[in-house]
Amino acid sequence: MTYSTKEKVILASLLHDIGKVKERFDGKNNHAALTREFLEEFDNELAELAYGHHRSRELNTFNEVRDVLKDYAEIVCQADNLSAGLERTKIPVKALKDWVRRERKSRPLLSVLSTLNLEKGESDERYFAVRELTLERYYLQPKILDEAGVDYSFWLKMKEEIQKVWEAGYSFEKLLFTLSYILKKYLFFVPSDTYEYQGEISIPDTSLYEHMRLASIFASALLENRERFILIRGDISGIQDFIAKITSKKALKFLKGRSFFLELLNIAAAFRICRELGIPPTQILSATAGNFTVIAPAKESYNEILEELRRKINSELLDTGIYIAIAWEEFEYEEVRDFSRLMDKVGRDLDDLKLRRYHELIEENYEFVFGVDMEKQSIQKECDVCKVQVDKEDIKSIELTKETTEETEEKLEVCNRCYEIYTLSDKLVKIGRLINEAKGRGFYIGIYYNGQGDIHLLDIGFKVEALPENLSDADFVYVANSVDFLEDIFIKNNVGCGFRFFNVNIAETSIDRLSESSQGAKYVGILKMDGDDMGKIFSTGVKNWWSKKEIDSVKMSPGRYATLSSLMELFFGYCVDRICREGKFFTRGRFAEEPGIYVVFSGGDDLFVLGPWNQVINLAMKIQEEYLAFTGNPNLTISAGVNVVEKKFPIYKSYLTTIEALEEAKVAFKEKNAVSLFNHNLKFDELRDAMKIKNFLVSRIMDKSLSRAIIHALFGVLNNGGKYRRRWSAKYVIARYQERYGDLNFLDVKVDEAFKENSFSKILVALKWAELLTRGGVNEEGRL
């Protein structure tokens, strides 16, 4: 395959520092020369452009570039300077003196997770071990410096994979896409810069992958405009109503499909923008959890294209109730030094758009937007699932299979969108069975620019498969939840390939099965969690941490922003999946011996799951514990809303009340890091104290050394507010039961603590928790 000089500029920018890996692997010096030596195997012009990326007093390889390539080499040089200048803020050696004491090739990547401060606690530096991205506990958890090993032996495998892909004759965009993910696989935990010069070092918290990726992103923009670029952001609104809009049987299957639909929709919007602007999809800086960011060159025509595209996209989504706010702003390249400020500026435009949903459609589609189309003559019918009115001839039928002998067969009449979502869910379930039977690693998601595939979103097609050979006609493919993505069938058929983390439960279950798996009362638990203060973390967290070291020049650059986003995706997209399936990941002790959790979605910085109610409560504590183990930083906290409901309670109502519970937990305490359970708000440490009380009661009741009636007796005297709550009444209850059943000093102390602190949430939650766990047969089911 022959590539144009402009295409080689972007490829050279992506690969310009590849020599650093070889340099650290075999101990040689001059990474620019090593980069040239490696790339000359593929293309001499490419090698020369990449070699010339330095133009400083200390090292000037730019001057060695031939005059005919000078203008293009200057773009590679400028792209590198932008990326390096943004990430490599110089700090005194003494700021990381122990890191500097190591040999240069043995210096690990500083975890940006550990260098965030919101005044919630002290955090020390943590480091990632240098090696290829390996999805195992030891390698994904930041460590103290002495435990962070460095191993560059992956160079040989990385070199072989790059050669294999290059020789396959890929088209430019697909080659760029695939190479980018090879770099992510091998260089995600490799520091970009390990040099020291004149008593200063660069902050080693941005990976070599992010630095090289950003250089290619800026090079693509610089080729069209040397002064300015466009920052494009998208935000999907209406997600909660869309997910909750389910009133039929098979609710879990529709929930699964709708959450996965939203994952694909986010990708589709970002890919569609790249396609319409004529830029590679590698210009997508991030696309996760209903948000995406794209960096594009500044062109006069782009405003008109983006405005028309925003109108078309939201016109296509109008029937779903979803609105994608898309905002953009032109900036000078130097402004990206304070990337959080740029993100905030475009973010304010997004917030304004979300307040004026569908404003771009109202003038020409007023009747359609407000549902008063007087000209429509066709007979309308309501979709059984989402309740949208559609033309009767567009209604499709779904035959539901019986799950129990008591159930009667049911047929749903649904709109085309719900039919697509149900079909997608059904396919996910079948893929899940195949993967489990074959003990496979994950599934594949094909992307079709021409709109082919099983589901069509915004003129982008998607197809989900268990086997790679079924996607040989795709334009791009993501392998889900595995970094082993280079399949021969993709390379042979010019399919751009990469990997993503999709925490989408693909096992079949039902509300009945979840409730029957509960201990004690046969209820269902619903859990919604998300990261606290994420806006502050991305805007001021890094600056605040370094300011405490009297270094005030550090800001949230694009590389730090992308690194932090990718780490969050890794935890919520991958680690949470392992926790839910296996009971633990980074920490000891499973939250359940046989986890029965159903993940509706998890990604970005939040999650939504269902399961046996007792497991769901334990899972909330386990995820909070695992999140702290992953970040190693008390400033990164997470809050939860837990709702325990009868199995017949509508899922869509449960989802909305769980969201309300989460919001209550977040506002209850300044530091957040809280959970709402049984209409009480507790810090997670308080919930663990409540668990100890619960464990005491349950163990005594189950071994028949205490009557279950004590729960109701204590609840009766403690669940009254203000002047009606009497300490002597509670003490009397304990004394009465202690006289008959023996030592209850532990419980007596906990009651004293509650009155001393004038806080009764811990003990009331513990009583309710124990009451549900110790319920017996059908006659004791009662109501919550």
Short description:
With 784 residues, this protein is of the alpha+beta class. It is built from 27 helices and 24 strands.
What does this protein look like?
With 784 residues, the protein is α+β, with helices and mostly antiparallel strands. The chain is 47% helix and 16% strand. The chain has 27 helices and 24 strands. The strands form seven sheets. It has a six-stranded mixed beta sheet. Helix 9 (172-187) packs antiparallel against helix 10 and helix 23 packs across helix 27 (761-773). It is globular and about 95 Å long.
List keywords for this structure.
784 residues, 6-stranded mixed sheet
Helix and strand arrangement:
Elements: H1 5-15, H2 19-26, H3 31-39, H4 44-51, H5 70-87, E1 90-92, H6 97-101, E2 109-110, E3 127-128, H7 137-140, H8 155-167, H9 172-187, E4 196-197, E5 200-202, H10 208-222, E6 228-237, H11 239-244, H12 251-277, E7 284-288, E8 291-297, H13 300-316, E9 323-332, H14 339-355, H15 359-369, E10 380-382, E11 389-391, E12 396-400, E13 410-414, H16 416-438, E14 444-448, E15 455-457, E16 460-465, E17 476-480, H17 488-492, E18 496-500, H18 511-516, E19 523-531, H19 534-547, H20 558-582, E20 598-603, E21 606-612, H21 613-631, E22 638-646, H22 651-668, E23 674-677, E24 680-683, H23 684-702, H24 709-718, H25 727-741, H26 745-757, H27 761-773
Parallel strand pairs: 17-18, 22-23
Antiparallel strand pairs: 1-5, 2-3, 4-5, 6-8, 6-9, 7-8, 10-11, 12-13, 14-16, 14-17, 15-16, 19-21, 19-22, 20-21, 23-24
Helix pairs in contact: 1-4, 1-5, 1-9, 1-10, 2-3, 3-4, 5-10, 8-9, 9-10, 12-13, 12-16, 20-21, 23-27, 24-25, 24-27, 25-26
